[in-house]
Amino acid sequence: MNKIEIKTEELERVQNAEAEAVGITKEAKYLCYPIEEVAGKLSSLAIEHELEEDMEYYLDDVTKLQHKLESAFYRCEEVFADRIRQLEDELCDIEDEEITNDWIWRTWYVSKANREG
């Protein structure tokens, strides 16, 4: 296996892992349902006791933190995306190196043939 094949294989593995990570992080979206249920119960209780405005302030904090938690899970996907970009750059470097080496070899060969010929 040459360098390009090895790097391409690694890239494919990480791309598959990224797709799996996206599926896993989608589960974070379902975390909001129990939170919303609890918030709804607290809100109803507060309304019942005429404390709606006070409760609303705290439930806004809960909502903000819920969104932060979901975002934090989605940012976990960046680990894979960053590695994919790095592998793509490395793959381009290897390909460029091989093209350069091939050009140098061909130039040397043609030059040698012209000197001998």
List the helices and strands and how they pair.
Elements: H1 3-26, H2 32-48, H3 52-75, H4 77-116
Structural summary, described in words:
The protein is mostly helical. The protein has one domain. Helices cover 90% and strands 0% of the residues. The protein is rod-shaped, with a radius of gyration of 28 Å. The model has no long low-confidence stretch (mean pLDDT 91).
> Radius of gyration from the CA trace?
28 Å
Number of strands: 0
What fraction of residues sit in β-strands? Answer: under 5%
Low-confidence stretches: none
What kind of sheet is the major sheet?
none
The domain count comes to 1
Find the structural class using helix and strand composition.
Answer: mainly alpha
Helix content: over 70%
